[in-house]
Design goal:
By secondary structure, this protein is mostly helical. Helix content is 22%, strand content 1%. It has a two-stranded antiparallel sheet. The structure holds heme C (10 copies).
């Protein structure tokens, strides 16, 4: 699972405290304003796992050599440990992240460098919390709130009448996105939009006897993955959806109306499901005579 690539010691030089965590706890214990103790309920605090920070320098594996901080605070003087995490930290994100990546440069995070989140200078701690029993971003429902803090348009999208079942946590952002991995466009889990969709909608992959070109090319030509006012997740309603690419002329393209138009252009089948009343196999057809996606 864990492949530690200790390329270089990510921590600044300095002196460690004498007693490890016991040097820190007098001031960071339960009930205090800067309580650090919930970390003891997490995997980072395991002393059995040789790769975990608590098998090494404990708190200072992450926060760096802390003796100066301890002494300063004991004397009532200002002073922080060498590494403080978070978006408001005096340490630049790259410096903070080097600490985490020292142990976590594996799986998707091999693609962290150059990803949209790395390029925007996000610290790991913009999304992750390590001083809580369960990091919210690892929970399906709570994760979305973390993402919405910065991607507020997506909060509005998933509340639209047609959406993926994200609202109650039966799905979440990381089903489609890997926030660490910039190898694929839009931080997608799979190399393309379609391959991402096929992981759950395998039947749409075909192979079809009669393909519909846009479906094989890119599902998002017709669907909005995050939510839409037009069910099911459509960019717009038929017939307009279809007429972006197909000419209206010479074919039923208007519902019955009082306008003076050629008879062949009006058709009651254009009410309701519009083109889909006749062309029902919009993703492709396996019927021997399904060339026009009727069956
Ligand atoms: C004598 C009390 C004392 C001891 C011992 C102590 N700290 Fe602190 N620590 C503080 C105080 C007070 C602050 C707040 C300082 C400030 O905001 O200027 C602080 C701040 C911090 C912060 C920054 C919090 C933030 O995000 O604003 C970290 C991280 C930290 N301490 C870690 C440690 C570690 C690790 C140790 C042990 C090596 C340790 N502390 C030992 C009193 C102490
Ligand atoms: C000294 C090595 C080390 C450092 C430094 C470290 N971790 Fe970990 N981390 C581990 C180990 C070991 C585990 C548990 C085994 C695993 O998940 O692979 C773990 C697990 C995790 C998990 C999964 C937790 C879970 O409950 O499944 C997250 C998230 C995480 N670390 C984030 C971070 C972040 C963010 C940082 C930097 C602030 C960081 N880690 C620093 C070693 C480290
Ligand atoms: C934009 C938000 C975000 C940022 C920034 C972020 N992560 Fe994550 N991280 C997540 C989410 C979401 C998951 C859960 C993924 C899942 O369930 O597949 C996760 C899972 C993890 C895990 C546990 C699961 C695993 O894949 O092993 C580790 C470890 C981890 N992240 C480390 C890091 C490190 C190190 C950084 C900084 C280089 C970082 N993360 C930056 C959102 C983020
Ligand atoms: C795996 C790396 C890691 C270890 C080990 C670790 N911390 Fe932290 N610490 C962080 C990160 C990341 C934050 C930023 C806030 C968060 O993620 O919860 C933080 C935040 C803090 C804060 C500020 C808390 C606040 O409420 O703002 C203090 C104080 C602190 N740590 C002290 C400690 C002490 C004391 C220990 C040992 C008992 C320790 N840390 C062990 C990574 C670590
Ligand atoms: C602290 C703010 C912040 C958080 C939290 C955050 N993001 Fe981002 N995200 C950004 C920024 C900044 C960008 C780059 C600019 C942009 O595209 O808006 C970005 C870009 C993206 C992109 C587009 C990538 C591209 O190539 O265009 C995706 C997808 C994304 N984030 C998903 C997520 C997910 C999923 C989460 C929650 C796990 C999340 N983000 C949490 C700030 C954040
Ligand atoms: C069903 C798969 C799926 C889910 C779930 C999903 N996304 Fe996306 N997301 C995509 C695809 C596909 C794209 C590529 C552009 C497009 O088609 O809109 C994308 C693009 C993005 C972008 C960049 C482009 C844009 O539209 O701004 C951001 C940011 C983003 N998603 C954030 C999120 C967040 C936050 C969540 C969770 C609330 C989430 N996504 C859930 C599939 C998904
Ligand atoms: C992680 C699994 C997963 C992925 C990946 C996924 N979907 Fe879905 N999709 C679902 C689930 C679950 C439903 C809801 C099914 C239901 O309600 O019966 C759904 C429903 C839909 C619906 C019908 C919505 C409705 O209102 O009936 C459409 C359209 C759709 N997905 C398109 C896509 C597209 C396009 C992609 C790729 C960008 C995608 N899906 C990726 C799981 C997924
Ligand atoms: C040319 C436009 C178009 C493209 C491209 C497209 N779809 Fe659709 N999709 C539709 C329409 C229209 C419906 C509604 C069908 C209906 O009401 O009978 C639909 C319905 C769906 C549904 C829900 C009903 C069902 O048939 O299961 C899913 C899931 C779905 N599409 C997934 C996908 C996936 C995955 C892709 C990419 C491989 C894709 N679609 C590409 C137009 C499109
Ligand atoms: C993004 C563009 C696009 C959209 C949107 C689109 N199509 Fe198509 N459609 C195509 C292309 C390209 C072909 C292949 C044309 C060819 O091979 O000459 C095609 C082929 C067809 C065919 C078969 C034609 C033939 O001669 O074999 C039918 C029927 C069809 N589309 C119906 C629809 C319907 C109904 C909709 C709306 C639900 C729709 N299309 C939406 C691009 C689109
Ligand atoms: C009343 C049923 C019906 C409706 C409604 C309908 N079509 Fe057709 N469509 C057909 C039939 C039948 C054919 C086969 C005609 C042929 O083979 O000459 C066809 C053929 C096509 C073709 C193949 C190329 C061509 O012109 O021969 C396309 C593209 C197409 N329809 C698109 C659409 C679009 C877009 C809509 C909605 C605006 C639509 N159709 C509505 C019955 C319908």
């Amino acid at each position: 699972m864990l492949l530690a690539l200790h390329i270089a010691d990510p921590l600044p030089a300095g002196q460690y405290s004498e007693l490890g965590a016991d040097s820190c706890l007098p001031c960071h214990a339960a009930g205090m304003p800067l309580d650090a103790t919930p970390i003891f309920m997490t995997r980072h605090a395991s002393r059995l796992d040789p790769a975990a920070p608590f098998s090494d320098k404990q708190c200072e594996t992450c926060h760096g050599p802390g003796r100066d901080h301890v002494y300063a605070q004991q004397r009532g003087e200002p002073g922080l440990p060498p590494v403080v995490f978070g978006v408001d930290s005096p340490n630049p994100p790259a410096e903070q992240n080097q600490v985490c990546l020292g142990c976590h440069q594996t799986h998707g995070r091999l693609g962290w460098d150059g990803s949209a989140h790395q390029a925007s200078d996000l610290p790991c701690a913009a999304c992750h919390q390590v001083h809580v029993e369960r990091d919210p971003v690892l929970d399906h429902e709570a994760q979305q709130q973390v993402c919405f803090d910065c991607h507020s348009q997506k909060r509005a999208d998933v509340l639209k009448p047609s959406s993926h079942p994200l609202r109650f946590g039966s799905m979440t952002c990381s089903d489609c996105h890997d926030p660490h991995n910039g190898e694929h466009d839009f931080l997608l889990q799979q190399p393309t939009v379609n391959e991402t969709c096929y992981t759950c909608h395998a039947e749409k992959q075909g192979p079809y006897l009669w393909e519909h070109a846009p479906a094989a090319e890119d599902c998002s030509l017709c669907h909005r993955p995050h939510g839409s006012n037009h069910a099911p997740l459509l960019t717009r309603r038929a017939p307009l959806l279809c007429q972006q690419c197909h000419a209206a002329a010479g074919h039923p393209s208007l519902a019955l109306s009082s306008e003076a138009v050629e008879d062949s252009a009006r058709n009651r089948f254009l009410l309701g499901r519009a083109c889909l009343n006749c062309h029902s196999q919009v993703h492709g057809s396996n019927h021997p005579s399904g060339t026009t996606l009727h069956r």
